[in-house]
Amino acid sequence: MTNQPLMGESFDIEEGRATEGGTFSLTAVVSSLKKFGDRVLRFYNARSPAMKVLMVLACCAGLTFEIWFLIHYQLLIEKMVEASDVLYTWGFKGALLLFIVVFVISFPPCVGFNFCGIFIGMTYGWKGWPLLASASVLGSTCAFIPFKYILRRRAIEMMEQSENLKVFMDVMNDDDASYWENLLVLVCLRLSPLPYSFSNGAMGAIPGISVSSFAFASAITSPKLLLQLFTGIQLKMIADHRNNGLAKFIKFVSIAIATIAFTAATYIIFSKMKAKMIERHRFNGGAIGLQSEDENQEAST
Length: 301
Fold this sequence. Notes:
Radius of gyration: 21 Å
Order of helices and strands: HHHHHHHHHHHHH
Low-confidence stretches: 1-24, 287-301
């Protein structure tokens, strides 16, 4: 059976085939990394000379900041703790400010969601979860709506940049799938290792996702935000001068273990679901293209 191209691009389903046990082969991993590198290179080559210079400068600035952070991480953490203490004294105004910031960065191409989550953890501890979760769910849903109904072509362009989203698109367009099946797939997508604001916009390209389903899935997966809060709490303790070097080292290790464990768990869940989607794609003989979907909508109007 011949697989059909997805969204105007060829999709080599063999490269994503899962081996027994639900794990992906090393060849598939290397191939995915190569494809990612090729996409980055194509994106860079398509930019204007001025934009290329800005991109190089941005990369250099990012690398410089990372090196500086490794050397002066204690100073940065202390400044963040000082800012969080000041914001805490603002009461409702401080909480409202953080809510607005999280809401705004939910719109692509904004970045900094993880940083905000960590900062909220420093400011409010575990009590900051309702604030972070509500701002995240509302912000991501409001970011999803314009890309679904107004900026659909831009959402399709964003979708083209993610092989993971392409695989799941066919399932969300399946008329035989139940509401709960689609919701399960959407929950897995919200757990996927995709940039936060990017996924909010790119998912608007999938016709099978309703606004209510998107908001529901975002709410279901909101407990994952506890990881950012945990990181913020531990970093604030590290900045406490009453802790000795061993205590600080243990807290750094706890952050690393929690991050690795959570990342591994979500990756395993996502990989197993993706493997099932790939097999389903093979069985059905391809996916429905987004471009044809748009053409059908235009014809009906």
